[in-house]
Amino acid sequence: MRATLLLHICALLFFHLFFFRATAQNRTLTGTVTSKTSNQPLAGATITVKGTRVATTTNDGGAFTLSVPASAQTLVISHIGMASQDVSIPSSGSLVVQLEESASARLDEVVVVGYGTQRKSVVTGAISSVRSSDLDNQPVVRIEQALQGRTSGLTISSTSGQPGSASTVRLRGFTSFGTDKNNPLWVIDGVVIDAGGIGYLNQDDIESIEVLKDAASAAIYGTRAAAGVILVTTKKGKSGRLSINYSGYYGTQGPSKKIALADATQYATLRNQSLVNAGKPAAFANPASFGKGTDWQKEIFNYSAPKQNHEFSVSGGTDKSSFFTSFGYNDTKGVVATPVSTWKRINYRINTLFKPAGFISFGENLGYSHSKNSGVGEVNREFGGIVNSALNLDPITTPYISDSLARATLTSAQYSAATRDNDGRIYGIPLYVGQEIKNPLAAIHNRLGNYSWDHNIVGNVFVDITPLKGLVLHSSYGTKMAFYGSESYTPSVYYNPSTSIGQTNINRQETWIMNWNLENTISYNRVFDKHNVTLLAGWGEYSDGLSHGATVQYNNIPATNFDQGSFLFNSLPTDRQNSSGSDGTLHRINSLFSRLQYNYDQKYLLTALIRRDGSSRFGTNNKFGYFPSVSVGWVPTLESFFPTGNVLNTLKIRGSYGVTGNDGIGEFSYVSLVGAGGQRNYTFGYGPNETVNIGYSPAAPGNPDLKWEETRQTDIGIDAVLLTNLTLTVDVYKKKTVGILQNPFIPAYTGYYSSFAQNFDDIENKGLEIELGWRKKIGEWNVGVNGNVSFYQNKVTRLLPGQQFVEDNSATFQTLGNITRTGLNLPYQQFYGYKALGVFQTQKEINEYTGPAGTPIQPNARPGDMKYANLNGDNAITTDDRTYLGNPNPTVSYGLTLNLGYKNFDFVAFGSGSGGNKIFQGLRRLDIATANYPTKYLNAWTPDHTNTSIARLVDGDPNGNFSRMSAFYLENGTFFRMRTIQLGYSFPKNRIGKWGMQRLRVYVLSENLFTVTKYSGYDPEIGISPDSGGGAQFGIDRGSYVAPRGFLVGLNVGF
Amino acid sequence: MKKDLLYILLLAAGAQFVGACKKELNVNPQSRIPIENFYKTEADAFAALVAVYDRFGFQAGGLYDKASIMDVAGDDQLAGGGNATDINDLQVMQLYTLNPTTGPESYLWSRGYSGIYRANVLLSKLPGIAMADATKKRYVAELKAMRGAFYFDLVTFFRNIPLIEGTVAIDSIYNITQTTPDKIYAYVEKDLGDAIPDLPVTIDVSKEGGRMTQGGARALLGKVLLYEKKWQAAADQLAVVNGPTPGGAASIYGYKLVSNFADLWNPNNKFNSESVIEFVHSGKSNGGWADAGASEGNLLCITTGPRSYSQVKPEAPDYFSGYSFLVFTKDFATFLHGDPRYAATVADLDSLKAAGAAKYSAGYNNTGFFLNKFIGRVSNKAANTPELNFFQDEYEIRLADTYLMEAEALMNAGGGVGVGSRAYTLLNAVRARVGLSAVASVTQDNIELERRKELAGEGQRWLDLVRWGKAGTVLAFKGFVAGKHEVFPIPQGELNNTKLVQNKEWQ
Fold first, then answer.
1. Less Cβ around it within 10 Å: N or C end of chain A?
2. Judging by beta carbons within 10 Å of its beta carbon (0-12, 13-18, 19+), is residue B29 exposed, middle or buried?
3. CA distances (Å), A707 to each of A744, A765, B102, in order?
């Protein structure tokens, strides 16, 4: 392999050196292209000398420069989404062209497909595109957020409002079990990136995003394409004049919501209620004496957290070379615990292309990013996170306590270890709530300075050679290299009687990863008569999983804060210096693929392809998988018999079927391995002969028949243009994954160290997607509306023989145990628990609620306790009485954009939402009786307040009112969020032209202005939690970081 | 020129198609060992044997083990800890609010079955391993003795359990069914009976201490028979362990009561003459919090320690500040007070505090009476993560226990119980060792009192109460329901999708 690679590179270099030569110049023509509808300059319009290959494109200011042969007569001006125009070349002076918008022409956009581009009119797969114009000036910093609500088929939820946090992306439902296997494949300029690694991308650099939804489109990425493929193309330079752009915004943000929690008086009252109901004395003689107490949310919230973003780019080119280079900077402060919640990223990008001769081009795309951030710790976690502490800490505790009180109530050791702010004031010690719940202010203080960082270098070099007309040899080598790590200091600290840290430490972690892929393709395109044929063959090789990491920790160092912490304390005794290393396991894939694209007169369309992938994760029995697909299309509106009229301008009917694969299972699962150490060691002997012997025992049993998981998908769709300005795309699909790779739960009586891997379960998704676009000029007004909506249903259609359900990847919640379960013939990961039938009002009702034996089913119940359905008809409420309670996963998602233009003003409103799901509202710690209460508990049953569905509060909860999973915790997750509203003003060109400017626009923008929802937590949008116990479904709220609401002002300048 | 280059290029591209071959997909397994490369040498067999011993002395990552579960289940100790859910498995055990999803049963269940699996794997591989026959025989015997011990624990706790004799094939995982307790007992008796002749009578404990011996297996067999109420058979086995002169000369296995009771709890006094089966712990394994269950350290030493303890005066013990679990009830402290074993058994922290000798902070359900047998000491702490790496061992069976068991078996078998009888000698040897006068005869009451005092905090009380049929009355105050709580619920996970049936007490 190495040798061939070398040969390849040498061959390419040879070409590069040889063919740098200039061509003769002709007459130079300049001009500008603008949109007739909006009067705005059109960037990226193509100007071709008719009948030749002499062409250029306009820059961001709509201007172009082209050297035209003296003999040339006519230019063809074209632009995506516009009707093309033929224009005579003026004998002198510059040219001004106005293009008109055309919905039909929008079907003629070029879309990026795997290993190439295709005109949208002849695409037969289900592909949704997002253009840079849709993303401009959106105040998001991650590409997943940029995609949210933009296309059909995607369900995207952020996992946290913390700046820079990732979102969960699911394309057409759940393709498999687990989390990683449901992440779509990201391909950035041809470089395959794992889902977690796309945070480096600056969305300002993105030219377009294509979402390959059906199997026929995605199968060319056979390997990991089952969960869909998202292709991202970054901006390239255009030939023409140099274009210099700046865009930026600055604004402030605040939490979009505050949760209603009991105040100190209400807290004391509820605590008394709960204690008295348990037969214990009330704890608070006079609840009203506590007043309102501390509002912990207010203590950690920041309503003016600044956020800024700046992007500076320069691009340009000639017909021999072009470049795009940009520098971006983002600095976002969190709206919660701002001192320890910040995110900064710098980006640098340089994309270049050289065309030394007509038959060769080569170039590179390279992005570098560096981010440095500090986070509040847990993303969505109930054990000691800052947000969760604010929700659960009693409001009687005060933010600070006086020195005299601290001396009186704490032991000397506790007193000296209590956290003090920079002025020496002692943070209040929780009075009633213990365990991991801390004074969030103290927790913030003790994280000051801690940060994590990363450097990403992602890019590729490529060469295209066209030795004959229509034949293109393409070769690309891409890598993703990343370095990331963290630095933290932990003080010796006393938080509360059960949480204290005995010794200080400093910790440094660093990891390096290197993934690469190499792809070579040959394609040949030939047009004869009305036949248009493109053949593609290629091979690719992919490598990931390589990583090296190291962690160093020094314990008990003489430092009291982060700044003093240092690894210079290396004279510490060795037993206070800990270090460990880590290595990843290489994962290799190699592939062969070929594709035929054919159309007859753009009327009858066909694409067929096959890919063969081999994976290092499978044994020799099944190392290779074959992934075929075929798609066809027909454009009846081009038929002569099709009635011409004004209603249906264009119609394309398409259908596809294909198979994609997934090798998402741990390395070496196909072979039985013997594991060593850890829970296998034992000690023999004593004194000098005492030996801790390293034990060996089998790890998971191997499965040599392990093979690719296969996703088979059928898609039928139409693309239509109605009434000249209404575009409509509809897709229906059925997607079935068979032989899901998994490590099933196995009973412990087998004694296996861990579960083995196998292909067994099947899951099926069916869905409907609609995308609509409408654009019209009405008088001085330009109006545009774009909307999309997607529905899906999924169902697990096969489990192991005899299995009725699986609890792999189930979410767990404190003492409730598993709260989700996947049942046979039911959607993936449903909420699972007890069915509540209401509240017992009298002892008589309890006594009369009997089983077959005639004895009370809930003997521990008292009036006010929850009545549970006895589903298995026995004599008690047991785990067998649980049932499916609802779906955590949104089944419908939609987005809506409204564009308005009036003279130089522009207005965009964009919102999106989802629904059909329930959210588990787990904001209160169940295992801490003294935790604070959300206000809904004020409605709990008491003898004086019986008309309620909320059971009585009682410490110990003998009837399991709150310590059983039930619909009490579930809320409707449907919501609509107004994501952005933007109002801009562009200065007229005649005013700014004299300063050399092409564009000067100012705008104001609101982010997350409002959310329509019935959900009582911070945010109905809850992605899959990265923390353990989070499960593989959406919608478990453990007190996640609130989404920010922001107001920004921005500026776009172009020269 | 252009054409030549084209050919070169096509050649290069073509070569790459050929290059896409299988060998690129064979990645280095690095530290991983395929099973077929293992089980070849004696060193492999030893390492595999060690993994079985690991389960024998296994502690849950949640910081408890079999002894702590039994302690909090009994009447003399409370779970304690930091709060009502600290080590929740122990809390629900203490209150008898455990259920098939919450409680320590999963630990007990998986400890047994993973031990059995590891033993079964090695037993099946041993015939093919090149090593001396004598060593091989010894390994087989050790494996069977431990397998017997695992099954004995499982049948004691869960009663209706599956008998796994080999390894379970992947395709029959979900088809396993339970068998009857008598079949399990028969299997245990056979395993132990097979093991005894091939186990060494004595070993060099400085090197091999902790490994199964003939005395250990025989004591275990005696205990099994006692639990089966096969009194005479039990007494016969235990008699060999205890030797002809209880309290006097050592038995053939070298067993003899340690003269000073308190020395039993000196961590440096490992494998003493009273130790029959010992779970070994080490301070050298560098156990960490990432997997506390993998530490070789004794977790009892940290869990039993008083919270925020500090020594004020030198006469106070140098306890390592711990988590205040397994505290004795005030009733028990009162009951044992005055007994010569009191000081070694109970640490009275409130007295120390009152005397100004030490400070500590009260944990949950604090009584002030701590389990002195195990509290870790600063002087014994390990260098790294000291809380998880105390090296004190635990007795699974010690001689005072086998003395009392034999006495009980003899009494029940109808043997003599008065002065001069063997049962009398056995019981009173345990008393005499701590300087107590002899009781007149061996009675059920005397046995019960002596076992409660002698073995306090060693995980025996609950087992005794259950086999004596007294748990229902003695433990009623804790929530124990007679006819239900004598048996543990089978963990819910074992029932999901399998053919196992929950114990009827828990249905």
1. N
2. middle
3. 15, 22, 37
Confidence band (pLDDT; 50, 70, 90) for A779?
confident
pTM of the full structure: 0.82
Cα(B269)–Cα(B378) distance, rounded to whole angstroms? 17
User: For A783-806, b where at least 16 C-beta lie within 10 A, e where not — what string?
Assistant: ebebbbbbbbebbbebbbeebebb
Q: Which residue from A588, A679, A749 is facing B54, i.e. has the nearest CB?
A: A679
Instruction: Tell me the longest C-alpha to C-alpha distance in chain A.
Output: 104
For chain B positions 361-390, those within 8 Å of chain A (CB to CB) are 361, 383-384
Residue among B391, B295, B376 at smallest CA distance from B54: B295
CB A1039 within 8 A of CB A259: no
- Range A865-891 burial, b when 16+ CB lie within 10 A, else e: bbbbebebeebbbbbbbbbbbbbbbbb
Q: Contacts of residue A473 in chain B, CB cutoff 8 Å?
A: 9-10, 13
Q: What is the pLDDT of residues A207-251, one digit of tens each?
A: 999 999 988 888 888 777 888 899 999 998 887 778 899 999 999
B372: distance to nearest CA of chain A, Å? 22
Question: Is the minimum CB–CB distance between B494 and chain A shorter than 8 Å?
Answer: yes
Q: Please say whether the beta carbons of A309 and A249 come within 8 A.
A: yes
Quick check: B54 and A498 CB within 8 A? Answer: no
Residues of B in contact with A588 (CB under 8 A): 24-25, 27
Q: pLDDT-derived band of residue A421, with 50, 70 and 90 as boundaries?
A: very high
**First and final C-alpha spacing in chain B:** 86
Collapsing DSSP to helix, strand or coil, A386 comes out as helix
d(CA A992, CA B345) in angstroms, rounded, equals 91
CA-nearest residue to A751 within chain B is: B114
CA dihedral sign of residues B242, B243, B244, B246: negative
Interval A815-850: pLDDT, tens? 888 999 999 999 999 999 999 999 999 999 999 999
Spatial distance between the Cα atoms of A259 and A687, rounded to a whole number of angstroms: 60
Which two three-digit tokens encode residue B301?
Answer: 């030493």
Asked if A242 contacts A314 with a C-beta cutoff of 8 angstroms, the reply is yes
Contacts of B115 in chain A (CB under 8 A): 751
Partner residue facing A802 (CB), from B30, B115, B497? B497
Write out the two tokens for A139: 């105040």
The set of residues, in sequence order, having a beta carbon less than 8 Å from that of B7 and lying 6+ positions away, is none
Question: What is the C-alpha radius of gyration for chain A, rounded to an integer number of angstroms?
Answer: 32
B290 and chain A in contact, CB less than 8 A: no
Handedness of CA B324, B330, B336, B337 (dihedral sign): positive
What's the average pLDDT block by block, 10 residues per block, for chain B (507 residues)?
52 49 69 88 96 95 95 96 87 92 93 97 96 96 98 97 91 91 98 97 95 97 98 97 94 96 96 96 89 93 92 91 95 96 96 93 92 95 88 97 97 94 97 96 96 97 97 94 95 90 92
C-alpha span between A979 and A911 (Å, rounded): 5
The residue to which tokens 């093991």 are assigned: B195
Tokens of A37: 């509808």
How many beta-carbon pairs under 8 angstroms link A with B?
282
3 state SS of B196: helix
DSSP, residue by residue, B228-287 = TT-HHHHHHHHHHHH-SSTTSS--TT-----SSGGGGG-TT-TT-TTEEEEE---S-S--
Option in B12, B21, B46 nearest A7 (CB): B12
Query: Residue A648: pLDDT band by 50, 70, 90 thresholds?
Result: confident
Distance CA B442, CA B446 (A): 6
CB spacing of A685 vs B206 below 8 angstroms: yes
